[in-house]
Design a protein that fits this description.
Layout (H helix, E strand, L loop, with lengths): L4 E6 L2 H9 L8 E4 L6 E4 L1 H5 L12 H6 L3 E3 L3 H15 L6 E5 L2 E5 L8 H16 L3 E6 L2 H13 L6 E3 L6 H6 L11 H9 L5 H5 L3 H20 L16 E11 L2 H21 L2 E12 L9 E12 L2 H15 L6 E9 L2 E2 L10 H21 L38
Parallel strand pairs: 2-4, 7-8
Antiparallel strand pairs: 1-6, 1-7, 2-3, 5-6, 9-12, 10-11, 10-12, 10-13
The structure holds a DNA duplex (18 and 18 nucleotides).
Length: 421
DNA sequence: TCTGGGGTCCTAGGACCC
DNA sequence: TCTGGGGTCCTAGGACCC
Protein backbone atom coordinates (compact mmCIF):
# COMPACT_ATOMS: atom_id res chain seq x y z
CA UNK A 1 0.00 0.00 0.00
CA UNK A 2 1.54 3.35 -0.97
CA UNK A 3 2.01 5.68 1.98
CA UNK A 4 -0.30 8.63 2.50
CA UNK A 5 0.70 11.42 4.84
CA UNK A 6 -1.40 14.14 6.35
CA UNK A 7 0.33 17.24 7.66
CA UNK A 8 -1.55 19.09 10.39
CA UNK A 9 -0.48 22.63 11.15
CA UNK A 10 -2.02 25.05 13.63
CA UNK A 11 -2.75 28.43 12.09
CA UNK A 12 -0.72 31.24 13.71
CA UNK A 13 -0.39 28.92 16.69
CA UNK A 14 0.85 31.25 19.46
CA UNK A 15 -1.55 34.01 18.47
CA UNK A 16 -4.45 31.54 18.19
CA UNK A 17 -3.73 30.33 21.74
CA UNK A 18 -3.97 33.93 22.97
CA UNK A 19 -7.22 34.47 21.04
CA UNK A 20 -8.77 31.29 22.35
CA UNK A 21 -8.58 32.60 25.91
CA UNK A 22 -9.31 36.24 25.13
CA UNK A 23 -12.11 36.64 22.61
CA UNK A 24 -11.49 40.39 22.38
CA UNK A 25 -8.40 39.60 20.34
CA UNK A 26 -10.28 37.77 17.57
CA UNK A 27 -10.12 39.69 14.30
CA UNK A 28 -7.61 42.17 15.69
CA UNK A 29 -3.95 42.61 14.83
CA UNK A 30 -2.06 40.59 17.46
CA UNK A 31 1.63 39.71 17.70
CA UNK A 32 3.56 37.43 20.05
CA UNK A 33 7.18 38.24 20.92
CA UNK A 34 10.31 36.18 21.50
CA UNK A 35 12.13 36.15 24.84
CA UNK A 36 12.92 39.55 26.33
CA UNK A 37 10.09 40.83 24.16
CA UNK A 38 12.64 41.10 21.37
CA UNK A 39 11.30 39.93 18.01
CA UNK A 40 7.95 39.11 16.46
CA UNK A 41 7.53 35.32 16.28
CA UNK A 42 3.79 35.01 15.57
CA UNK A 43 1.20 37.24 13.89
CA UNK A 44 -2.56 37.17 13.50
CA UNK A 45 -3.99 37.49 9.99
CA UNK A 46 -4.84 41.12 10.67
CA UNK A 47 -1.23 41.77 11.74
CA UNK A 48 0.06 40.11 8.57
CA UNK A 49 -2.15 42.45 6.53
CA UNK A 50 -0.42 45.38 8.23
CA UNK A 51 2.84 43.97 6.85
CA UNK A 52 4.37 43.06 10.21
CA UNK A 53 7.22 40.76 9.21
CA UNK A 54 8.21 37.55 10.95
CA UNK A 55 11.33 38.04 13.07
CA UNK A 56 11.34 41.82 13.03
CA UNK A 57 12.52 43.44 16.30
CA UNK A 58 9.72 45.14 18.21
CA UNK A 59 11.57 48.46 18.51
CA UNK A 60 11.62 48.79 14.72
CA UNK A 61 7.82 48.72 14.48
CA UNK A 62 6.83 50.75 17.56
CA UNK A 63 5.19 53.29 15.25
CA UNK A 64 3.07 50.71 13.49
CA UNK A 65 2.06 49.14 16.80
CA UNK A 66 0.90 52.52 18.11
CA UNK A 67 -0.86 53.60 14.94
CA UNK A 68 -2.90 50.41 14.51
CA UNK A 69 -3.29 49.52 18.19
CA UNK A 70 -1.62 46.17 17.59
CA UNK A 71 -2.02 43.90 20.61
CA UNK A 72 1.41 42.80 21.88
CA UNK A 73 1.95 39.64 23.92
CA UNK A 74 5.07 38.11 25.44
CA UNK A 75 5.64 34.41 24.84
CA UNK A 76 3.68 32.19 27.21
CA UNK A 77 5.27 28.79 26.65
CA UNK A 78 3.47 27.19 29.58
CA UNK A 79 0.19 27.89 27.79
CA UNK A 80 1.37 27.01 24.27
CA UNK A 81 3.02 23.76 25.36
CA UNK A 82 -0.13 22.62 27.12
CA UNK A 83 -2.41 23.58 24.23
CA UNK A 84 -0.09 21.74 21.86
CA UNK A 85 -0.53 18.52 23.83
CA UNK A 86 -4.29 18.86 23.61
CA UNK A 87 -4.16 19.26 19.85
CA UNK A 88 -1.88 16.24 19.48
CA UNK A 89 -4.23 14.11 21.58
CA UNK A 90 -7.05 14.77 19.09
CA UNK A 91 -4.99 13.18 16.31
CA UNK A 92 -4.79 9.76 17.95
CA UNK A 93 -8.40 9.07 16.95
CA UNK A 94 -7.58 9.51 13.27
CA UNK A 95 -4.47 7.39 12.86
CA UNK A 96 -2.51 4.74 14.73
CA UNK A 97 0.70 6.44 13.56
CA UNK A 98 1.34 10.01 14.68
CA UNK A 99 4.57 11.99 14.48
CA UNK A 100 4.61 15.13 16.60
CA UNK A 101 6.95 17.24 14.49
CA UNK A 102 7.00 20.51 16.43
CA UNK A 103 4.95 22.42 18.95
CA UNK A 104 2.34 23.24 16.29
CA UNK A 105 2.79 20.59 13.58
CA UNK A 106 2.27 16.87 13.19
CA UNK A 107 2.34 14.25 10.47
CA UNK A 108 -0.03 11.29 10.58
CA UNK A 109 -0.31 8.19 8.43
CA UNK A 110 -3.59 7.97 6.50
CA UNK A 111 -2.79 5.03 4.22
CA UNK A 112 -5.79 3.17 5.66
CA UNK A 113 -8.17 5.78 4.22
CA UNK A 114 -9.47 5.36 0.62
CA UNK A 115 -8.20 8.27 -1.54
CA UNK A 116 -11.71 9.56 -2.28
CA UNK A 117 -12.36 9.90 1.46
CA UNK A 118 -9.19 11.80 2.38
CA UNK A 119 -10.68 15.27 2.14
CA UNK A 120 -13.67 14.30 4.29
CA UNK A 121 -11.43 12.80 6.95
CA UNK A 122 -9.32 15.96 6.89
CA UNK A 123 -12.42 18.09 7.43
CA UNK A 124 -13.53 15.87 10.27
CA UNK A 125 -10.15 16.19 11.93
CA UNK A 126 -10.14 19.94 11.51
CA UNK A 127 -13.59 20.27 13.05
CA UNK A 128 -12.63 17.99 15.94
CA UNK A 129 -9.54 20.00 16.88
CA UNK A 130 -11.52 23.21 16.65
CA UNK A 131 -14.24 21.88 18.91
CA UNK A 132 -11.99 20.31 21.51
CA UNK A 133 -9.29 22.98 21.74
CA UNK A 134 -10.70 26.08 20.09
CA UNK A 135 -7.72 26.22 17.75
CA UNK A 136 -7.87 26.44 13.93
CA UNK A 137 -5.71 23.96 12.00
CA UNK A 138 -5.06 23.27 8.33
CA UNK A 139 -4.57 19.85 6.80
CA UNK A 140 -2.52 18.87 3.75
CA UNK A 141 -2.57 15.32 2.39
CA UNK A 142 -0.16 13.75 -0.13
CA UNK A 143 2.09 10.83 -1.01
CA UNK A 144 5.16 12.31 0.71
CA UNK A 145 5.76 14.53 3.71
CA UNK A 146 7.21 17.30 1.56
CA UNK A 147 4.16 17.30 -0.72
CA UNK A 148 1.85 17.19 2.31
CA UNK A 149 3.51 20.35 3.59
CA UNK A 150 2.91 22.00 0.23
CA UNK A 151 -0.71 20.85 0.20
CA UNK A 152 -1.11 22.36 3.66
CA UNK A 153 0.23 25.68 2.45
CA UNK A 154 -2.45 25.84 -0.21
CA UNK A 155 -5.08 24.72 2.30
CA UNK A 156 -4.14 27.70 4.46
CA UNK A 157 -4.04 30.25 1.67
CA UNK A 158 -6.96 29.30 -0.54
CA UNK A 159 -10.38 29.92 1.03
CA UNK A 160 -12.13 27.48 -1.29
CA UNK A 161 -10.22 24.55 0.23
CA UNK A 162 -11.87 25.28 3.57
CA UNK A 163 -8.61 24.39 5.30
CA UNK A 164 -8.07 20.94 3.80
CA UNK A 165 -6.35 19.92 0.56
CA UNK A 166 -5.46 16.46 -0.69
CA UNK A 167 -2.97 16.10 -3.54
CA UNK A 168 -3.38 12.32 -3.68
CA UNK A 169 -4.30 11.30 -7.26
CA UNK A 170 -4.86 14.96 -7.99
CA UNK A 171 -4.80 16.41 -11.53
CA UNK A 172 -3.75 19.75 -10.00
CA UNK A 173 -0.39 18.69 -8.63
CA UNK A 174 1.70 20.49 -11.27
CA UNK A 175 -0.21 23.69 -10.66
CA UNK A 176 0.11 23.29 -6.89
CA UNK A 177 3.90 23.00 -7.23
CA UNK A 178 4.08 25.81 -9.78
CA UNK A 179 2.55 28.19 -7.26
CA UNK A 180 5.05 27.49 -4.48
CA UNK A 181 8.23 29.57 -4.52
CA UNK A 182 11.33 27.41 -4.25
CA UNK A 183 12.33 29.21 -1.05
CA UNK A 184 9.09 28.01 0.56
CA UNK A 185 9.83 24.33 0.01
CA UNK A 186 10.57 22.39 3.22
CA UNK A 187 14.34 21.94 3.36
CA UNK A 188 15.23 24.92 1.18
CA UNK A 189 16.78 27.65 3.30
CA UNK A 190 18.20 31.00 2.24
CA UNK A 191 21.51 29.63 0.95
CA UNK A 192 20.01 26.96 -1.30
CA UNK A 193 17.21 29.27 -2.44
CA UNK A 194 19.78 31.80 -3.61
CA UNK A 195 21.76 29.16 -5.49
CA UNK A 196 18.63 27.71 -7.11
CA UNK A 197 17.29 31.08 -8.21
CA UNK A 198 20.60 31.90 -9.87
CA UNK A 199 20.02 28.75 -11.92
CA UNK A 200 16.55 29.95 -12.79
CA UNK A 201 14.92 27.31 -10.59
CA UNK A 202 12.30 29.46 -8.91
CA UNK A 203 9.35 27.19 -8.14
CA UNK A 204 8.79 23.85 -6.45
CA UNK A 205 7.79 22.46 -9.84
CA UNK A 206 11.07 23.55 -11.44
CA UNK A 207 12.99 22.01 -8.56
CA UNK A 208 11.11 18.74 -8.97
CA UNK A 209 12.05 18.66 -12.66
CA UNK A 210 15.75 19.48 -12.17
CA UNK A 211 18.41 16.89 -12.98
CA UNK A 212 19.14 14.94 -9.82
CA UNK A 213 22.91 14.92 -10.43
CA UNK A 214 23.06 18.70 -10.46
CA UNK A 215 21.17 18.81 -7.18
CA UNK A 216 23.39 16.15 -5.63
CA UNK A 217 26.55 18.12 -6.38
CA UNK A 218 25.44 21.17 -4.43
CA UNK A 219 22.94 19.78 -1.91
CA UNK A 220 24.13 16.24 -1.31
CA UNK A 221 21.83 13.37 -0.52
CA UNK A 222 19.50 15.67 1.39
CA UNK A 223 18.75 17.51 -1.84
CA UNK A 224 18.20 14.30 -3.78
CA UNK A 225 15.74 13.08 -1.18
CA UNK A 226 13.93 16.39 -1.37
CA UNK A 227 13.56 16.23 -5.17
CA UNK A 228 12.26 12.67 -5.01
CA UNK A 229 9.77 13.65 -2.32
CA UNK A 230 8.51 16.37 -4.67
CA UNK A 231 8.16 13.71 -7.39
CA UNK A 232 5.86 11.79 -5.06
CA UNK A 233 8.31 9.14 -3.88
CA UNK A 234 8.30 9.07 -0.11
CA UNK A 235 11.87 9.19 1.27
CA UNK A 236 11.16 10.58 4.74
CA UNK A 237 9.44 8.07 6.98
CA UNK A 238 7.08 8.88 9.80
CA UNK A 239 9.04 9.12 13.05
CA UNK A 240 6.67 8.08 15.77
CA UNK A 241 9.12 7.84 18.64
CA UNK A 242 11.53 10.73 18.63
CA UNK A 243 15.15 9.55 18.52
CA UNK A 244 17.04 10.17 21.77
CA UNK A 245 18.54 13.62 22.06
CA UNK A 246 22.23 14.25 21.62
CA UNK A 247 22.31 17.46 23.58
CA UNK A 248 20.31 19.57 25.99
CA UNK A 249 20.77 23.33 25.83
CA UNK A 250 19.53 26.14 28.04
CA UNK A 251 20.56 29.64 27.04
CA UNK A 252 19.16 33.13 27.22
CA UNK A 253 19.93 36.64 26.15
CA UNK A 254 19.91 39.19 28.94
CA UNK A 255 17.59 42.19 28.77
CA UNK A 256 20.53 44.48 29.55
CA UNK A 257 24.31 44.16 29.84
CA UNK A 258 25.68 41.88 32.56
CA UNK A 259 29.06 43.04 33.84
CA UNK A 260 29.52 41.55 37.32
CA UNK A 261 30.87 38.05 37.77
CA UNK A 262 28.28 37.51 40.51
CA UNK A 263 25.46 38.20 38.04
CA UNK A 264 26.92 35.99 35.35
CA UNK A 265 27.36 33.20 37.90
CA UNK A 266 23.73 33.48 38.98
CA UNK A 267 22.52 33.32 35.40
CA UNK A 268 24.65 30.30 34.52
CA UNK A 269 23.53 28.66 37.77
CA UNK A 270 19.88 29.04 36.77
CA UNK A 271 20.52 27.71 33.24
CA UNK A 272 22.37 24.75 34.72
CA UNK A 273 19.49 24.09 37.12
CA UNK A 274 17.01 24.10 34.23
CA UNK A 275 19.26 21.86 32.14
CA UNK A 276 19.59 19.37 35.00
CA UNK A 277 15.79 19.34 35.36
CA UNK A 278 15.42 18.61 31.64
CA UNK A 279 17.98 15.80 31.91
CA UNK A 280 16.14 14.19 34.81
CA UNK A 281 12.79 14.48 33.03
CA UNK A 282 14.26 12.62 30.07
CA UNK A 283 16.22 10.10 32.16
CA UNK A 284 19.53 11.26 30.76
CA UNK A 285 22.87 12.05 32.35
CA UNK A 286 25.50 14.40 30.90
CA UNK A 287 29.04 13.22 30.23
CA UNK A 288 30.20 16.69 29.27
CA UNK A 289 29.11 20.23 29.97
CA UNK A 290 29.79 23.33 27.90
CA UNK A 291 29.35 26.87 29.17
CA UNK A 292 29.34 29.69 26.65
CA UNK A 293 29.21 33.44 27.03
CA UNK A 294 28.93 36.23 24.48
CA UNK A 295 28.82 40.00 24.28
CA UNK A 296 26.18 41.92 22.33
CA UNK A 297 26.71 41.17 18.65
CA UNK A 298 24.86 44.37 17.77
CA UNK A 299 26.79 46.43 20.31
CA UNK A 300 29.81 48.64 19.71
CA UNK A 301 31.85 47.59 22.74
CA UNK A 302 34.59 44.95 22.66
CA UNK A 303 33.32 41.69 21.15
CA UNK A 304 34.00 38.47 23.00
CA UNK A 305 32.51 35.04 22.68
CA UNK A 306 34.00 31.97 24.26
CA UNK A 307 33.11 28.56 25.57
CA UNK A 308 34.59 25.88 27.81
CA UNK A 309 33.75 22.21 27.63
CA UNK A 310 34.49 19.98 30.60
CA UNK A 311 34.22 16.23 30.57
CA UNK A 312 32.40 14.80 33.56
CA UNK A 313 34.12 11.67 34.81
CA UNK A 314 30.89 10.25 36.23
CA UNK A 315 27.99 11.28 33.96
CA UNK A 316 25.47 13.15 36.07
CA UNK A 317 21.98 14.63 36.16
CA UNK A 318 22.33 16.06 39.67
CA UNK A 319 22.08 19.83 39.91
CA UNK A 320 24.84 20.28 42.54
CA UNK A 321 27.37 18.24 40.56
CA UNK A 322 26.66 20.06 37.33
CA UNK A 323 26.65 23.42 39.12
CA UNK A 324 30.15 22.84 40.44
CA UNK A 325 31.47 22.27 36.92
CA UNK A 326 29.46 25.08 35.32
CA UNK A 327 30.39 27.74 37.88
CA UNK A 328 34.05 26.86 37.64
CA UNK A 329 33.88 27.25 33.84
CA UNK A 330 32.05 30.55 34.23
CA UNK A 331 34.86 31.97 36.34
CA UNK A 332 37.37 30.93 33.69
CA UNK A 333 35.37 32.55 30.91
CA UNK A 334 34.58 35.78 32.74
CA UNK A 335 36.34 38.95 31.65
CA UNK A 336 36.12 42.08 33.67
CA UNK A 337 36.20 44.38 30.62
CA UNK A 338 33.19 42.83 28.87
CA UNK A 339 29.48 43.49 28.88
CA UNK A 340 27.84 40.10 28.54
CA UNK A 341 24.59 39.83 26.62
CA UNK A 342 24.08 36.10 26.40
CA UNK A 343 25.14 32.91 28.12
CA UNK A 344 24.15 29.29 28.16
CA UNK A 345 24.97 25.72 29.05
CA UNK A 346 24.99 22.70 26.75
CA UNK A 347 24.94 19.16 28.09
CA UNK A 348 26.40 16.54 25.72
CA UNK A 349 27.73 12.98 25.76
CA UNK A 350 24.30 12.02 27.07
CA UNK A 351 23.62 8.53 28.36
CA UNK A 352 20.41 6.99 29.72
CA UNK A 353 20.55 7.09 33.52
CA UNK A 354 19.59 3.44 33.83
CA UNK A 355 22.73 2.37 31.98
CA UNK A 356 25.21 4.36 34.09
CA UNK A 357 28.07 2.24 35.47
CA UNK A 358 28.42 1.94 39.22
CA UNK A 359 30.70 4.64 40.59
CA UNK A 360 33.97 3.31 41.89
CA UNK A 361 33.98 5.75 44.76
CA UNK A 362 31.12 7.32 46.66
CA UNK A 363 28.36 5.25 45.10
CA UNK A 364 26.32 5.62 48.30
CA UNK A 365 26.76 9.37 48.24
CA UNK A 366 25.55 9.40 44.63
CA UNK A 367 22.51 7.31 45.53
CA UNK A 368 21.66 9.75 48.30
CA UNK A 369 22.10 12.71 45.97
CA UNK A 370 19.72 11.18 43.46
CA UNK A 371 17.20 10.71 46.23
CA UNK A 372 17.54 14.37 47.13
CA UNK A 373 17.00 15.40 43.51
CA UNK A 374 13.87 13.29 43.32
CA UNK A 375 12.55 14.95 46.46
CA UNK A 376 13.38 18.43 45.14
CA UNK A 377 11.66 17.73 41.81
CA UNK A 378 8.63 16.46 43.72
CA UNK A 379 8.38 19.57 45.89
CA UNK A 380 8.83 21.89 42.93
CA UNK A 381 6.23 20.03 40.88
CA UNK A 382 3.74 20.41 43.69
CA UNK A 383 4.47 23.91 45.01
CA UNK A 384 5.83 25.60 41.89
CA UNK A 385 9.20 25.92 40.17
CA UNK A 386 12.14 26.97 42.35
CA UNK A 387 10.31 26.47 45.64
CA UNK A 388 13.48 24.59 46.56
CA UNK A 389 16.54 25.82 44.73
CA UNK A 390 20.24 26.43 44.98
CA UNK A 391 21.27 29.74 46.55
CA UNK A 392 23.63 30.16 43.58
CA UNK A 393 20.77 31.31 41.35
CA UNK A 394 20.46 34.46 43.46
CA UNK A 395 17.55 36.55 44.66
CA UNK A 396 17.66 39.84 42.74
CA UNK A 397 18.11 38.22 39.33
CA UNK A 398 18.52 41.51 37.52
CA UNK A 399 19.43 39.56 34.36
CA UNK A 400 16.13 37.69 34.12
CA UNK A 401 14.23 37.50 30.85
CA UNK A 402 11.76 40.31 30.34
CA UNK A 403 8.12 39.30 29.84
CA UNK A 404 6.17 42.53 30.11
CA UNK A 405 3.08 41.40 28.20
CA UNK A 406 2.52 37.81 29.21
CA UNK A 407 -1.03 36.51 29.44
CA UNK A 408 -2.09 34.27 32.36
CA UNK A 409 -0.98 30.64 32.25
CA UNK A 410 -4.63 29.62 32.10
CA UNK A 411 -4.26 25.87 31.82
CA UNK A 412 -1.26 25.05 34.01
CA UNK A 413 -1.43 27.33 37.08
CA UNK A 414 -4.36 27.17 39.52
CA UNK A 415 -4.05 30.80 40.51
CA UNK A 416 -4.21 31.93 36.88
CA UNK A 417 -7.40 30.17 35.80
CA UNK A 418 -9.66 32.04 33.41
CA UNK A 419 -12.43 33.86 35.28
CA UNK A 420 -15.76 34.60 33.63
CA UNK A 421 -17.99 37.36 34.96
C1' DT B 1 17.12 51.95 25.55
C1' DC B 2 15.26 47.76 22.40
C1' DT B 3 17.62 42.36 17.75
C1' DG B 4 15.00 34.49 20.48
C1' DG B 5 16.01 29.62 21.70
C1' DG B 6 16.78 24.82 20.84
C1' DG B 7 17.68 21.39 17.97
C1' DT B 8 19.28 18.05 13.70
C1' DC B 9 21.84 16.17 9.71
C1' DC B 10 25.55 15.98 6.26
C1' DT B 11 30.17 16.69 4.39
C1' DA B 12 35.01 17.52 3.97
C1' DG B 13 39.32 16.96 5.72
C1' DG B 14 42.77 15.35 8.94
C1' DA B 15 44.62 11.74 11.97
C1' DC B 16 45.30 7.26 12.43
C1' DC B 17 45.09 2.20 11.51
C1' DC B 18 46.42 -2.12 8.96
C1' DT C 1 62.18 8.47 -13.20
C1' DC C 2 59.06 5.64 -9.38
C1' DT C 3 55.46 7.07 -3.82
C1' DG C 4 48.90 1.80 -2.24
C1' DG C 5 44.40 1.20 -0.84
C1' DG C 6 40.88 1.13 2.12
C1' DG C 7 38.96 1.72 6.34
C1' DT C 8 37.32 4.42 10.88
C1' DC C 9 36.84 8.18 13.92
C1' DC C 10 36.65 12.89 15.06
C1' DT C 11 35.84 17.76 14.35
C1' DA C 12 34.50 22.02 12.29
C1' DG C 13 31.55 24.19 9.45
C1' DG C 14 27.53 24.71 6.73
C1' DA C 15 22.87 24.03 6.00
C1' DC C 16 18.39 23.36 7.60
C1' DC C 17 14.01 23.08 10.81
C1' DC C 18 10.34 25.21 14.09
Amino acid sequence: MPPIFAHIDCNNFYVSCEQTFDARLVGRPVIVLSNNDGCVIARSEAAKLLDVRMGVPLFQIEDLVQRHAIVVRSSNYALYGDMSQRVMQCLDDFSPHVEVYSIDEAFIDLSHVPPNRLTDVGQLLRARVRKWTGLPVSVGVAASKTLAKIANRHAKQSPKTNGVLSLVDSPHIDLALERIAVADVWGIGPAYAHWLRRRDITTARALRDTDEREIRRRMGVVGVRLVRELQGTSCLALEECPPPRHSVTVSRSFPGPVVLLSELREAVALFTTRAAEKLRRRNLAAGALTVFVATDRFGRGPQYRASTTVEIAHPSDATPELLRVALHSTEELYRVDCEFKKAGVVCTALAPTDTLPVRLWNQEKWDRLRGVMEAVDGVNARFGPDTVRSAAVGYQQTWRTRVAHRSPRYTTHWDELLCVD
